[in-house]
Amino acid sequence: MSTDELAADLTRQTENSPRELLTRTFFFLCAGLSIVTTASIVILLVTEAAKFFTITAPLMGVTGPTASIVDFLTGTTWQINSEQFGVLALVTSTLMITIGSAVIAIPLGVATAIYLSEYASNQARSVLKPALEILAGVPTVVYGFFALIYITPALSTIIPQIGTFNMLSASIVVGIMIIPMVASISEDAMSAVPDELRQAGYGMGATKFDVATGVVVPASLSGIFSSFILALSRAIGETMAVTVAAGSRAQFLNPLNPASYLEGALPMTAAMVQLLTGDITGGGLAYRSLFAIGLVLFAITLIMNIISDLVAQRYREEY
């Protein structure tokens, strides 16, 4: 028997052993459970949201009041009592939180990752990285109260016209909250860059800063961009921090207008909490709007993740 045949025979025996079969079955069940869970969530959102819209509600056996899908997607007024369900009032607030937190987290997170990867000693990195990741373990409701009690009063000394509940304070605290995600994933991507590339840069007379910004960052761009998308997806889905800090009044604001950040608004996640904690009838129109908001939120996050995968594949470097 040749060496290749012997290796193939041993591999076959190992794969068919009871222990190997048990292990493969266990991991297959874990993978299948994750798929079933995801599919169940999607089916729940789609079926319950369908009961909310006029065009699909009869197919779901709903005979009560419904809402127009066009008014829902294009309306700018969200008033439960008057049955005005314009989701753009909530989407723009969520978009403001995302933009504001990105302005805080992306530069600070990347700068932190560059320091940990290129400048910090092994001893400093072993202390600073776990300390940074502690921020991710703080309960989000604590971040909300931190924004309300500390950040907003500090901002009011600089901007007297700012409201007690405002989008600026909520954006800052969400930005602080997602810095560990940007920094940790970006630092892992930078650490994976081969040292040969760094040495080549130094050999051409480049400084450490030049190597970090001109060699390491471009080489790890796909990982860095993925950290941005994951962090912003977390910002979009953040609930308790924005519920406490942003306020509870739904209004349509311009995300590109800096003055809009001084006002309070109602992001999508906070609106869902408000609906769940209010006096709404189970199975009623307001209750069904929960699932319509959730479906929009799911669609936005899914699109961001797809874009992240496309960009990561486009700029992925293989060494």
Low-confidence stretches: none
- What class would the helix/strand composition place it in? mainly alpha
Sheet bearing the most strands, described?
2 strands, antiparallel
Distance between the termini: 37 Å
The beta-strand count equals: 2
Assess the beta-strand content as a share of residues: under 5%
Instruction: Identify the overall geometry.
Output: globular
Based on CA atoms alone, the radius of gyration comes out at: 25 Å
N to C succession of SSEs: HHHEEHHHHHHHHHH
What percentage of residues falls in helices of 4 or more residues? over 70%
Strand order of the largest sheet: 1-2
Total helical elements:
13
Average per-residue pLDDT, rounded, comes to 85
Description:
The protein is an all-alpha fold and 319 residues long. It has 13 helices and 2 strands, in the order αααββαααααααααα. The protein has a two-stranded antiparallel sheet. The longest helix is centred in the first third of the chain and has 33 residues.
Quick recap:
This protein has 319 residues and is mostly helical. The protein contains 13 helices and two strands, in the order αααββαααααααααα.
Please write out the topology.
Elements lengths: L2 H13 L2 H33 L18 H6 L3 E2 L4 E2 L2 H32 L2 H13 L5 H19 L8 H25 L3 H9 L4 H12 L1 H17 L2 H6 L22 H10 L7 H31 L4
